[in-house]
Amino acid sequence: MRILAAMSGGVDSAVAAARAVEAGHEVVGVHLALSRAGGTLRTGSRGCCTIEDAMDARRAADRLGIPFYVWDFSERFRDDVIEDFVSEYRAGRTPNPCMRCNEKIKFAALLERALELGFDAVCTGHYATLVETPDGPELHRASDQAKDQSYVLGVLTAEQLAHTYFPLGSTPSKALVRAEAAERGLTVAQKPDSHDICFIPDGDTRGWLAERVGVAEGDIVDRSGSVVGQHEGAHGYTVGQRRGLSLGVPAPDGKPRFVLEVRPVSNTVVVGPREALATAEISGHRHSWAGRAPQESAFACDVQIRAHADPVPAWATWQDGALTVRPEVPFEGVAPGQTAVLYVGTRVLGQFTIDRTVSAVPV
Q1: What is the pLDDT of residues 212-261, one digit of tens each?
Q2: CATH of the domain at 175
Q3: Known catalytic residue: 101?
Q4: Phi, psi of 38 (to 5 degrees)
Q5: Catalytic residue among 49, 98, 123, 198
Q6: Residue limits of the tRNA-specific 2-thiouridylase MnmA-like C-terminal domain (predicted)?
Q7: Do 149 and 121 meet the contact criterion of CB atoms below 8 Å apart?
Q8: Which residues lie closer than 8 Å to 162 by C-beta, 6 or more apart?
Q9: For position 36, what pLDDT does the model report?
């Protein structure tokens, strides 16, 4: 196959490209320039899109003896990921930019261009497994549960899965990937993993949002509507947050309070006891299936609401274009804007963006 290897400059994508070459594929490496923000051009940036990363990717490609290019996707990234991130926070939701990047950039814009240029598939260093079936490829968890990244790939469609290649999915541990990189002479063998949001290199999400959304003082209220504090911008809060609330009125029972809801229209933040974070139901209209859609309108599944959360057994219903999930044990701290990924065993069934939550604890 002709493989376009997306090379971030990290050890995972470098080893993935190496394995594609070793498997006999015709491989071309490409690094995506996703951001023109100044902070991403400095050594020490905390994301994955720096100039140094591009140089590391080029060195890895040279070591593997494959052609290498840098493609500027910064405008598409700005429109589809960064602006979406800002607009979601403006609306009082908590988005996952990595999901949007996989959905809109790595497996949409990049894959579209790859297919146009005659490539058969895009190769990445994600820890996930593809299983071929008579109904087409299925997306499954990686063998290393600690590194499994199937959650952030839950946005992929059947057509996209048919043109993807995940060489690391069956690797038992990240330590083995680093050891393999060292054996292959790749200089990124011990390079630290990227973390935080790549387009916020200093990690100050609240400050970054304040510059773009603006600062507007408002009330922090309890579940009865009584004012218990003030804030400088509702966008700086997310469901489940405990620290940084600076409440002027203590709870009657003296226990800590948590953010339960963000109301952007009234610029209000609602707080309450931890038990009020329990969520009995979630639903959303923006959904997709990672392969063949369920044959039934109601089915049992496991649901994961964060990248590193434990899956929860649940009952899902699919009706009038909306997915509704009721977990056997309530979720805790679910925010609109998050992504719920549905599994059946190790298989990723699909995903939806959470629009509505129902508390398990009545007011």
Answers
A1: 887 788 999 998 899 999 998 888 888 989 888 878 887 888 889 999 99
A2: 3.40.50.620
A3: yes
A4: -55, -40
A5: 198
A6: 281-350
A7: no
A8: 136, 137
A9: 61
Q: What is the number of other CB atoms lying within 10 angstroms of the CB of residue 133? A: 10
Binning the chain into helix, strand and coil, the percentages to the nearest 5 are 30, 30, 45
Please report how the helices 11-22 and 174-183 are oriented relative to each other, as an axis angle in degrees rounded to 10: 70
Helix (H, G, I), strand (E, B) or coil at 124: coil
Return the number of other C-beta atoms located less than 10 Å from residue 132's C-beta. Answer: 9
Query: Over 90: is that where the pLDDT of 154 sits?
Result: yes
Q: What type of residue sits at position 358?
A: V
pLDDT of 342 over the 80 cut: yes
Q: Are 259 and 270 in contact (CB under 8 A)?
A: yes
Which residues is 32 bridged to in the sheet? 71
Q: Is 58 helix (H, G, I), strand (E, B) or coil?
A: helix
Q: Are 280 and 294 in contact (CB under 8 A)?
A: no
pTM, full prediction: 0.90
Residue with tokens 């209000």: 268
Range of the domain at 63: 2-183
Cite the annotated binding site for ATP by residue number.
Answer: 6-13, 32, 125
Report the candidate in 243, 233, 254, 344 with the shortest Cα–Cα distance to residue 299: 344
108 shares its domain with 152 = yes
Last residue of a domain, one of 270, 294, 309: 270
Predicted confidence at residue 250, as pLDDT, reads 79
| Amino acid identity for residue 136 in this structure | G
